[in-house]
Amino acid sequence: MEHIIPLFVVICLASAFLISILGIKFKFFTTIFPIIASAVLFILSVLALYLMNINGLMVYKIGGWIPPIGICMVLDGLSSFMLFTVNLVAFFIIIYSYNYVKKYTHRYKYYGLLFLMLAGMNGVIITGDLFNLFVYLEVAAVSSYALVAFGTGKQELEAAFKYMVMGTLASGLILLSIAITYSYTSTLNMADIGNVLSSKGVSPVVLFITALFMVGFGLKAALVPFHWWLPDAHPSAPAPISAMLSGVLIKALGVYAIIRIFYNIIGNNIYISKILLVMGTLSMIVGVVFAIGQYDFKRLLAYHSISQIGYVILGIGLATPLGIMGGLFHLFNHSIFKSLLFLNSGAVEHATGTRNLKEMGGLNKRMPITGNTSMIASMSIAGIPPFNGFWSKLIIIIACVQANEYIYGLFAVIGSVLTMASFMKVQKYAFLGKIEEKWKKVKEVPFGMKFSMIGLALVCVFGGLMLLPDISDFILKEASKAVLIGTDYVNQVLGSV
To answer: Domain segments of the chain: what residues?
Structure first.
C-alpha cells in the first residue's frame, strides 16, 4: 500500500495544472473541482493514518531504485499525523475560498497557486531525501509569496517582498547546510545521512550544520528571534491564505523539519533541547506581548501565531513522552483554532470592509455564526476548558513539571493568561457591546464561509476527545513514538528496504 504516498503530491500538482489550464474556460475547475480534490486528499490522509497504524513505517521507492541510491518517500507516525493536519485544514479553507475569492480576479490563478503550496507542504512531509525536502519547501514558499501579494495592493506587495527576502535568506541557509551535509556524508537520503553521522560522531562540521539548520528552519517557523517577517506577511494575504500560512505552512516547513532533522537524523541532545526550550519560551511570551497592543484584527492573530508556535516548540524541546505528545497535540489544535480565527477575521473584513477593531462593535447581533465561532476559537487559543487548546496546554504544563522545568511551565501559564486578555479585547471591540449604526445593515457571510467556520469550531469543541485511548492511539501515539525513537528512524527506514 506504499503507492498511496506519492498521491499526496501527484494529486496537488495535477490539480494545480488542470485548474491553471482549464480554469480559464470551464467554471467547474474554479468552483467544484478544488473542493473535490481537497476532499480526496483529506480522505487519503485518513487512509494513510489507518495504513500506517496497521503496517507500520512504509517506504515508497521512486522509479524502483532502492535507497540510498534512489529517492524515496517515507510514511511514518509523524508524517501521517502531519498529512492529516494539513489536508484537514486545507479542505475547510478551500470550501471557504469558494465565496471569499469572488472579489478577486483570476480565480484559476488563486486555486492553482494554493494547490502548488499544498503540494510543497505535502512533499516536505513525506520526502525521505534532504535535497527534495528543499525543492518541495521552495515550491510551497514561492507559491506562498505570490499568494500574499494576490490582492496586488501597496501593502500586499510590500509585505510579499519582505516575506520573499526573509524566505530566500532562510532557503539559502538551508541549501548551504544541505550542501555541506552532502559533502560530509556523500549522501542525500535522510536515513543514510543519519547512519553516516552516527558512525562519525560529533564534529565541528556537524555543529556548523546544526546551527545553519536551526537558523534556517527557525526563520521558516517564525521562532523568536527569527520572527520579524511574519507580522507583515500573514495579515496582508487574503484571509484563507493567512489561515493556511499560520495554520499549517509554518508548521510543515518549519516545525516538522526541525523535529525530523534534530530528532531523527542528527539526533537530539541536551544542548539542542535547551535551545528549543529557550526559543519556544521567548516566542511564547514575545508574541503575546506584542499581540496585546494590536488593534488590526489580522495582525493581532499573526503575533499570536508566533506565541502559539512557542508552546509547540516548548513541548518538543522537553524531549519527554508527555512533552512531545503535548507539543504535537498543540500543533494540531493551533492549526484548527488559528485557521478558524483568520477565517473569522476574513468574514468580518468581507462584511464590513475593515480590520480595525476600534471601528467595529456589536457585530455578534448581525453576524451570529461568525461571532459565536470566534468566541469558541478565542476560548480555545486562551486555553479555557473544555476546548481543545486547554488540553494540549495542560499537557505541556504538566510535562514541564514532570521534567522539573518549573520556570518554563510558569511562563506557559503566564502566556496563556495574557492570551486570554488579548482575546477578551477582541470579543469586546469586535462582537460584543452596542452595535454601531453603520453596521446595522451588515449581513452574515455566504454558506461556504459559514460551513468552514462551523466545521473548524466543532473540531475546537470536540478536539479534546483525541485524548481518548482509541483515538489517541490512532493519531497521537504513533506520531509521538516516531519522534521518541530518535535516530532509530534510520534503522527503520533502511531496514524496510
So the answer is: 2-496
